[in-house]
Amino acid sequence: MQTQLDTVARDLVERFETPGLDPTALATDPGLFTDGGNRLDLTMLTGLAARINLNTVVDPDSGGDSWRLRAGLGAAAPNDPGDSTQLQAFSAALIEARPVAGAIFGTGNMRASEIAEAMTSRVGADAHVAEQRKTFATGAQKQMQQLEAEQGVDTDQELQQLMQIEQAYAANARLISVVDELMDTLLRL
Prior knowledge:
Number of helices: 6
Distance between the termini: 93 Å
Shape: rod-shaped
Strand content: 5-15%
Structural class: mainly alpha
Helix content: 55-70%
Radius of gyration: 38 Å
């Protein structure tokens, strides 16, 4: 699951770091989504899903300006509010079919929505398999409990048998004690 989540996060970060996607950004600037505030680090892919963030320059909660989505991440000032060129470029980046790193969702080119669907499908399939295994294990446990009840040890019956053995042993011990006393008496005569 970690690999799947990291692959989806990697695809998302890479889509928005595509050279030329945002003409206002430098080649060294992170894209719309970042790897902990930086460009994607291909040597540290494990855990990327936990580190993915919205670029702070557009995140109002981090002091960014949402107008940069329209004007460009590196824009110095807001552009015409009716100019949706950059928004359309971002949208096209999501729609573009491209290969998925690691090919864990298949070998063909996929759009961002198809990758999300593939992961959701895998999660659903894995959940279904887990549910089947749980059902099987529950059935097996019930079967074992039934067999144990049918063929297992009846503790009440076993306790009664142990008590009978103990009584017989005590009676035998008394008999042996009496015989021993008689033998001693006979030997003294």
